Structures are given as structure tokens and as C-alpha cells.
Amino acid sequence: MVKPLLTFAVSALAGIAGVLGYAAMNRPVVPSDIHELAGNVWVTEQVTLQNLPAIRSKGFKSVVDLRPDGEAADQPTSTSIGETAKSYGLQFAYIPVRHGDIPENAVDALAQALAKAPKPILLYCRSGRRAARTWALVEASKPDGLDAAKIRAAVQSAGQTADDLNEAISSRISARVK
Hints:
By secondary structure, the protein is of the alpha/beta class.
């Protein structure tokens, strides 16, 4: 009598452990480092396919990928992220920005995406740096954008730096159409 009961208990515990292990492996994972920049625009590091359900459950409505395809072997493609994002009801935009100078067409494309996409919006690249820096140039260009100190503070609070963009930010703020 004891042996069948013990066998049943061990089997039940193994089954429960298996179910819990499966659930833990398949639970949505939120990127570890999400920061708000301003105006319901957030920034993070590389997003994976496994992150998208959690991103949606956190209330995000749009995702913008600023990382060029093929930058790293383990990086998901923009197509796979975009298709998966859409399957979770997230709007998706792909605006690749290579390391180095931020091209004006990327600033324009991000400005358009930010103006049209439902908020909150999550921007990402490998580390969040290019995404935050590109946002800083967009924000500095907006007629009603933040001042230079607030733009720098937002980028810094996201754990990034845009000190080398100080002149470009000031120039864009000076050129704002009022």
C-alpha cells in the first residue's frame, strides 16, 4: 500500500515540476532595461521575439526597431520582429541606424513614426544608445519639443549619453519653427 502511494506522489511531483518548468521557460520576458524618454516614448536594448508578448502586456502599442539587420548573428531580423509584433497587436516600424553619425533620413523617419504610431512607443537598438540619440535629434527638431537640458537629461536617465550631439541639438532647437 505504501509503495503505490509513494509512486503516485513521486509521479505527481514530477508532473507538477514539469508543468512549472514549461511555464517558466515560456513566460513572456520583458527587456531588462526600459526607460521613458518623454511623451510616452520609451527606449530599451535589443528586443527578442520572446519579449513581444510581455511588451504588449506592459501596455506598449508600438515598437520601433533602429538596429540594422545582420549587425550580429544572434539578432532577430526586423521582418521576424515585425511579423511577431503585429501578431500581438503591436504596430511596428523599422528604421535602421548604423553606428556613427545619425543620418537625417533616419531622424525624419523616426519623427514620422513617432507622430503616427499609437503610444506608448518602445524604441530599441542593440544597447538603446542609437535609439535614444536618434530620439534626441527628433525631439530637438520638434516645434514644441523639449529644451536642450531636458533632452540631455532624458537621454542620461535612460543610461545613455548624447554629449557629442550638443551642438546638433542646440542648432535644431534654434531652427525650430514657432
